[in-house]
Specification:
single chain; alpha/beta; five-stranded mixed sheet; disordered N terminus
Length: 367
């Protein structure tokens, strides 16, 4: 057990789900840990061979910064990245479904509707005693007690460096918060950036003022066409490859300012169209659009729904932004009205404020 403690974060624990009497020999992991007996489930167990044949690994978890969340519509999280390493090593695609509580997670495992349950780091071991776990760790991967193949494969696959790699991938190296003195962008001729003509060209497409497009680019990349973020956003406007594809722009072209700004403009228009019914005031809609550009539309619509659920004003950003901050807390991001779980919402609220401040500064520049 001393060796098992060294890998507690990634320990694989087997959930004792069986109601039957049939048993087989327990499985011993490479580090000498007994991970449970092999009591059969009342349902026929999906074996690892079955998973390989289907080509998809299904995991369930609760949203959080260490398990799974979406950032700019991109799945991230330490445990997600760790499991993704395993899935890729096995030639499997990975699907993660969010649950609001452990009861639902374990039910999915028991009924063979999921292969692995990822426990949140914040879950206390004493709260798990009633689930009769064979071993308990602060974070664990739980599999059906009858799926010996999967449990043994996971145990033999894991190496501590895999966890370190996943942790590095899930903790972003933040882009520098570029100087608040935006006058440094002002040329002797009064231009904001070398790309002002492109901002003007695509402003009608975006349905935003061209100087607001410039403010977004200043905040996103400091007008650096070669910028790339920790989640893979590219270019001046930090456009995600899947976003560019959705709007008919090849991801390979995103380092070219013309295509990058065009993709961003199309996406900004799309966001406004999606928000039009809920946010009627065009000025307010711009603020919500900026938030969605940063966090993803799903997190913003979650904040709107949560505001309504809490009887707060759901039509003005000044109110919804405060509610959005609550999405960082499990007590709120696991409510049924919240579909996308945890959000890095403090970053989003700050982002909107910074872009608006830049825009106000840029409005004083020569037209």
């Amino acid at each position: 057990m001393e060796m098992a403690a060294k890998v507690a974060v990634a320990a694989i624990v087997v959930f004792s789900l069986s109601q039957c009497q049939k048993t087989e020999a327990p499985i011993i992991t490479p580090w000498g840990q007994v991970i449970g007996d092999s009591s059969d489930n009342s349902h026929s167990v999906v074996s690892f061979d079955d998973i390989l044949q289907q080509g998809e690994l299904i995991a369930v978890t609760m949203s959080g910064p260490e398990t799974y969340y979406e950032y700019r519509s991109q799945p991230v999280g330490t445990q997600y990245f760790l499991l993704l390493q395993f899935a890729k090593a096995c030639g499997l695609s990975l699907r993660v479904d969010l649950c609001s509580d452990t009861t639902t997670m374990f039910k999915r495992i028991r009924q063979n509707q999921a292969d692995i349950a990822i426990l949140p780091h914040s879950l206390k071991s004493d709260s798990l005693q009633r689930y009769q776990l064979a071993t308990i760790s602060s974070v664990g991967w739980i599999v059906n007690s009858g799926n010996h193949q999967l449990a043994d494969t996971l145990a033999r696959w894991y190496r501590p460096e895999y966890l370190n790699r996943a942790a590095s991938a899930s903790h972003p190296v933040s882009l520098p918060r570029y100087a608040t003195d935006t006058k440094r962008y002002k040329t002797p001729r009064g231009a904001i950036s070398p790309f002002d003509n492109l901002f003007r060209r695509y402003a009608p497409t975006s349905r935003l003022h061209w100087k607001l497009l410039a403010a977004i680019a200043a905040q996103e990349s400091a007008f650096n066409p070669s910028a790339q973020s920790w989640v893979g956003a590219r270019g001046l406007m930090q456009v995600m490859p899947h976003t560019a594809t959705r709007h008919g722009v090849s991801p390979d072209l995103l380092y070219q300012p013309n295509y990058n700004i065009r993709a961003a403009a199309l996406h900004l228009r799309y966001i406004q169209q999606q928000l039009a019914i809920q946010i009627r005031d065009p000025r307010e809609r711009i603020l919500f659009t900026l938030a969605a550009y940063n966090a993803g539309l799903g997190h913003v619509t979650d904040a709107i729904a949560l505001a309504a659920h809490l009887n707060r004003d759901s039509h003005h950003w000044s109110s919804v932004s405060q509610v959005m901050l609550l999405l960082q807390q499990p007590a709120y991001n696991r409510l049924p009205v919240v579909r996308h779980g945890y959000a890095r919402s403090s970053e989003t609220v700050d982002y909107v404020e910074r872009v608006v401040a830049r825009y106000q500064t840029f409005k004083g520049f020569r037209k």
